[in-house]
Amino acid sequence: MPTALGSWCRAMFPSAPAAERVAAQNLLTQGTINFGKGGTYRLTEHPDWKPQATSDTSGDRHVNSLNWALPLLFRGVQVQNQAMVDRFRQLMLYWIADHQGPRGTWVDGTIYGGLRTQTLVCAAQTLNDPTITEAALRDARTMVKSNAGAVPVAVGVNNTDLIRQTGALAAFCWTADWPSRDRAWANLVSIANGVVLPDGSDVEGSPAYAVYIESLLRTIETSATTCGMPADPIPTLRNRLYDFVSQAIRPDFLVESLGDSVSESLRASFGAADGQAEWVRTAGKSGTPPAPIYATFDGGYVFGRAGWQPQLGGPDTFYSLRYSSTRPATAHTHDDGTGLTLFSRGTSWIGDPGPYRYENSDKLRAYLKTRAAHSALTVGKVARSRWSGVKKVITQSDWATGGNDTSCVQDNTWVSVTLVRCTQYVRSVDAMIVTDYVNAAPGKGKKAKGRFTWQRWQVAPGVESGYIGSTLVLTKGNQHMDVVKAGTDQWVIDKARNGSSVGWYTGAWGQKLPTQVINRQIAIPKTGMQQALVTVFVPRTGEEQVPVTIGPDGVTITRGALTITTPAPMPQLGAPLL
Q1: Is residue 471 part of a domain?
Q2: Does residue 508 fall inside a structural domain?
Q3: Mean pLDDT, the chain, whole residue set
Q4: Pairing state of beta strands 479-485 and 417-426?
């Protein structure tokens, strides 16, 4: 019976004793693993490690991570409960015995192999068990095989590669295998430089994963300290993340739901000792707000806002615009290029539907990752190659003097059709102008028939829609958002219904909420065309009237005593407004 945990246990697995007590009791008396977002899993005396109906794809694979069993060891050692420690040891030995031969991709691969390596190192150091020690070293030798350390920046990696190398570092440091330890550290530095771009943005296409990466970098720093070695440059990379994550926080202090992100508050430990991270984490109660109110990031993000500390009754508008990362996308990135989100008056109006849950067989999960599920542009009846990407064209702002933000991104993924989305946030009247420019080449043969541009706006849950005169108005409580467009056609409004993936939105993890999609299709003739679809979003109270006119000279907006006219933001002038 060990009297203390090994030093590597807390270095890699900091946790709360109260949570450990509950989890350990459930594992010992009920045999239940709670994977949180991944569902639950029931253990028999000798588990078969196979998928279960109560866990999703992520949960089924996390059975092989073994970290779920650590509460038995941690709590057992703390209160000297022999039954808990024995059950933990036996589960480790069962898994090791059942996986002596070749292993599948999802057993040794990605996060599952990495977390298991860390777990086995903790177990081996604490229990001094030779079987577990050899299993930890087998895992570590598999994890460290990466050649990432041969280059300063590993391209094409993601957060799971950090976990794998952290486990290898711990194993080799603990056993004093210094050449292997140095290789694991070189891999870690290269991978960390690969998942955090120089401007602090992530490669995951998901701000929530940047928050997660911050915790992984903290674990790496703690592991370096445990190993008695310097952690450079990990602290520098971690500090860069705070600039990015802060910009991805909405005025309600929730993370914007881009990619595999759910709109939720930051965890209590995020960004300790960083002033701006503290400010967004504490909802402005302490710390220092960031300075910029317009920012672009190489991870493929544009963020803008009216300001960080809006006055009571004043504008609090926040928006995001997506384009392709300068590095390869990961599994957590959605096909959301040109996607726009818009928050104002305390309400998310145009949103991103989020991830739903990690269940590969689920049709809704598959749909929510596609372009059609986002507030973006698509082209119908035209071949497409996603690898061509959505590129940043114009990103400029006069925010420092109270002026406008102008951003343009170009979608090159459609064969024979180029799409450019330009947005302009007009601070003086608190309005967003969006111009979707379509340049379609003449079609050839039968493939030219039936082409069309499809513009969609994903309305956030709890928002109602209806016409007031000829203007579509979104409503929530006493707050409104006018949606004004050029052209005479009306919007089509598709509401969520059973049997269809259209119009569903992620609430909490795994929760789907019904909402609606405002959309319109514009036919592309066989002869080709140039056209500009202009849409203006105007937040207002129920008592306000904010007239908008879209004409050849641009967009005219009157709010109170102020009237402005601005050209519709476009990469090329002269296209007809639709």
Answers
A1: yes
A2: yes
A3: 95
A4: unpaired
Residues 140 and 121: their CA atoms lie apart, in Å, by 9
Tokens of 13: 């697995």
pTM beyond 0.85, yes or no: yes
CB neighbours (10 Å) of residue 366?
A: 14
Asked, for residue 281, whether it belongs to a domain, the answer is no
Quote the tokens at residue 163.
Answer: 């976990």
Identify the helix (H) or strand (E) that includes residue 82. Answer: helix 82-98
| Alpha carbon distance 482, 474 (integer Å) | 6
CA distance 163 to 146: 13
Model confidence over 460-497: pLDDT tens digits? 999 999 999 999 999 999 999 999 999 888 999 999 99
**Cβ-based neighbours of 290, under 8 Å, separated by 6 or more:** 243, 246, 247, 276, 279, 280, 308
109-126 burial code (b ≥16 CB/10 A, e <16): bbbbbbbbbbbbbbbbbb
Distance between CA atoms of 394 and 408, rounded to whole angstroms? 5
Per-residue pLDDT reduced to its tens digit, 497-538: 999 999 999 999 999 999 999 999 999 999 999 999 999 999
How far apart, in whole angstroms, are the C-alpha atoms of residue 485 and residue 115? 51
Can you read off the two tokens belonging to residue 277?
């991270």
Give SS3 for 154.
coil
Domain limits for position 553: 334-566
| Domain termination residue (choose one: 85, 115, 145) | 115
Domain total of the chain: 2
